[in-house]
Design brief:
The complex is a heterotetramer, with 2 copies of chain A (303 residues) and 2 copies of chain C (279 residues). Chain A has 303 residues and is α/β, with parallel strands linked by helices. Chain A contains 12 helices and 14 strands. The model of chain A has no long low-confidence stretch (mean pLDDT 97). The chains are: A alpha/beta (303), C alpha/beta (279). Chains in contact: A-B, A-C, A-D, B-C, B-D. At the A-D interface, α4, α5, β7 and α9 of A face α4, β9 and α5 of D.
Amino acid sequence: MTMKDAIRKFVNDGEMVFLGGFAHGIPFSAAHEMIRLKKRKLKLCKASGGILFDQLIGAGVTNHIITSHCWNGFGPQPTWNYKRAIEKGIPHKIIYNEQSLFMINMSFFAGYMGIPFVPIRSLVGTSIIEHPKEVGLKATMVKCPFTGENTCVVPAINPDVGIIHVQRADSEGNAQMWGFIGENKYGINACKKIIVSAEEIVDRKVIMESPERTIVNSYKVDAVIHEPWGGHPYSMQGFYYTDLKYNFNYTKETKTIEDWEDWLEKWVTGVNDRQEYLKVLGEKRIKKLKAKNMIQGAVDYGF
Amino acid sequence: MTMKDAIRKFVNDGEMVFLGGFAHGIPFSAAHEMIRLKKRKLKLCKASGGILFDQLIGAGVTNHIITSHCWNGFGPQPTWNYKRAIEKGIPHKIIYNEQSLFMINMSFFAGYMGIPFVPIRSLVGTSIIEHPKEVGLKATMVKCPFTGENTCVVPAINPDVGIIHVQRADSEGNAQMWGFIGENKYGINACKKIIVSAEEIVDRKVIMESPERTIVNSYKVDAVIHEPWGGHPYSMQGFYYTDLKYNFNYTKETKTIEDWEDWLEKWVTGVNDRQEYLKVLGEKRIKKLKAKNMIQGAVDYGF
Amino acid sequence: MGSEEEKKYCTEYTGYEMMLISASRQIKANDIIFNAFHWPYLAVHIARLLHFPNLYTVIEIGNIQDQLIKPTRMPYSISDPVIVPNSLFIGDSVDVLSVLQRGEITLAFLSTSMIDKYGNCNTTVIGSYDKPIYRLPGGGGATEIAALSKKVIWLLDEHTKRKFQDRLQYITDPGYLDGYDSRIKAGYPPDSGPEAIISPLCIMRFDSKTKEAYLDALHPNISIEEVKENTGWDLKVAKELKQIEPPTIREIEVCRKTMKDAIEQCYILKPEWITYLEK
Amino acid sequence: MGSEEEKKYCTEYTGYEMMLISASRQIKANDIIFNAFHWPYLAVHIARLLHFPNLYTVIEIGNIQDQLIKPTRMPYSISDPVIVPNSLFIGDSVDVLSVLQRGEITLAFLSTSMIDKYGNCNTTVIGSYDKPIYRLPGGGGATEIAALSKKVIWLLDEHTKRKFQDRLQYITDPGYLDGYDSRIKAGYPPDSGPEAIISPLCIMRFDSKTKEAYLDALHPNISIEEVKENTGWDLKVAKELKQIEPPTIREIEVCRKTMKDAIEQCYILKPEWITYLEK
């Protein structure tokens, strides 16, 4: 299946979409396909919004984001589409449903566990808990039935569809990651429909060589896509390093609406798929970003 | 530090003790030292009690067990010390604080997370929730503040001291396991004092080669003991297989009090430490149980 | 089981063998099975060998697997380390609980010491909890498996009034609780609960309204009376009582191979269960 | 910092450099540090290079580490993949939250856009939440780090009334809330909370009773008046006001090396912060 087919088939306008990856294995390829397919009114959730959310906001794909921050981590610098949408309603108004990083992680965890809520020891006294939010995404207080203490609890999040980009998967969808997993395991298993894109499609034997690295199993997965470099410009441990220059320049290159439209045309709407994107990126840069080998971590599974 | 020193120094009569390992990496060596050092009134918690708890009950070390079952999984067969203690008060009465397997796991998880309780979707309507239990170890119901549904919650467990037996640790106590982790990561990190015994003491470089395998970090660990075969007669992936014969015969060999006393003398009180225990076990058996190599699971950590 | 060869029935077999084979026939190709220790494990193993080598199974120690152990081998239990490098996923019990709580298990097999007419089970104690006559080993993970799987099939290797009771004093594993809608009122998913009880004598299923177990199908050469006499409540019988097909030659071969392998792995099978094992 | 060599003070440096060095001096050998992105990361990096190569640090992405990255290198952020094979532990944010919630973090550094006299911070919005004048990026994990670390030190690279406000309209990260015992009443551990605020001008600490920030120590060549004029509340001054030791030659060398490495990793440092960087 191609990314285009998967996004067309499994992502519907108005749905809540989980996009995985915490600065590593971010599904940029999937997000760009959403833009090309003109998906609308998606409700996006992700621990750290970053330039991925900024692009989806600028392209008019979302009207509601649920995250703990949205910025360009390089610099650090602001993300202009995000600011334009919230401060000026360009391209349209969006709801920013602010979460703290660990709050949204615990909400994904509760979704993963199939429980309606889970306690957290932070948030009390902050405006994050006090600010009106959509029911089901707002933390609240309960009394601990054991200790009597007032305890903050966060609700489960179970998105309609989830997308992750991983190092490898087998053709059936058993997907593995290593390095920074972020919220991927909890977030993706909490979703009703699941799309996995992978740098490599491997034999199931490879999956079984280190089964602890599996984050979602095939019986839950709706689409598996072989999508090399699907996480550029962020890193993919063992495959490529973060494109520092591309990330750093993003803020400068998207500051005005005109600049943003040029950027979008160059990298997203002017190309048809990830392979064409990589042509724009250029062989030289690709070669430079490619990770050096560092194969390690074998242990004895003998019995 | 020797196991004797560690148990003497860190395990005090009357404390709540977590013993890790779910049919793999069970700290038999530590348990036998508790028996030799005549520890008393320990309150023991573990997901699956098994013959480890049976021995600690028979030797009079504990008067309170918190677990989801206590049997000899081989056969399956009953464990006689456990039955004698509960049915007849021999060697003395013990409290059996029955948990379900996942309930005790979630209690360890809550202890791990530093939260007072966590929801679980089972237990309602069972006698496990209805039977009187010590405060703080009994599940109860709360109303979900988001959905309004009646929700069962279990309390956190934070034992005074925890003991795990792992494949490897560095000399500072960064401990790693693979294969079945059971409740080890959650249980051990929930403890106030921590003892780690390991099949191998490795250089910290080895730990950093696959940091995902770490289940507890040195800043929390009070004692690290190099204790090869510390998990016999259960398995240790990559080191030795389960001693089926020893386990199977255990029930037969401990059926009467006299038989049990002979068994205890032979394997525990008649030896001074794990090395002497291994002499009783014999070189031939040790050789037979030794795992064949199956080194795999390396991935590319390059960047 | 389509070919003529396979349809040849076996004439000599034990009730225990019939129970395992009957259980193995309940599985569908797309089931996500919770694979519990002992008799349940054997039933699923038989189904894998006979029909569904790629059956998806989950075990409480934290494994997900969708093929036979290679080289083919009967694990001594759900914690045999041979399972680890044969798994698609290894996590911990909390991960497995998440699969159960998300409602992804379509079918679970469990065995128990005693069951009541609403499918509740007791593996904790006979007599009072604090002054027991017999203390049983305890339920382990069966509580959650029974509570949260879409369909639960209970295997009882002995069909007697002591094992099949009207109501139980102590419930370790929830079935339909007090019958009718009491399970749903307790908060369990409406599409979850006991599906059948399989014993050497028969298969019972649960009335869609009262949730009481009734006799749905007889194993070969078993009479209604024999079942009723050995059941601790006034057992109702299905309007269209079914007759279970005897084991085929192929089924019995695989079943006996499985039992042999189990014995080698320290499973204790009673002499009367393995009468034909060496033939 | 014992030897004569190291005690030689530097005379030309920026307030930003003084802030980082002042921050790095707050660390003790046995601290378990929460290592946040940006200025906090630089301060901890300096302490590692100067004094404590084996400092224990935790970052929100799920890493625990107790030595410098090898080969020595400044990660571009807390998510640089170079960190992974230099870690003693890699888990996820839930694992890291567990470390925070168990109260194991002894010291955390954080930076923020604005702070109030009770050590509460806002990184969310200027103006109203729904109709903001400026929308800030949001707090990320700072909420939990501020809530649960035993000691929190806030770094502010600009000391103005806009940054140091009497009270904030929006609290992203909890400090002492409304002062006095309001933080404890909210349920936070009594031994947790803001420890200091470090700016280019000074170090503030918090009154043990009112929990209001007061001027505890001046950076070299800074006057009380300068601090008071740039602080948005009526700043109280410690009875025994301390004078901060200027950066030593060694400290400034390490600080500038760290800043250079940071710039190479895309950190934007303002021109006035790096005046002496090429000297």
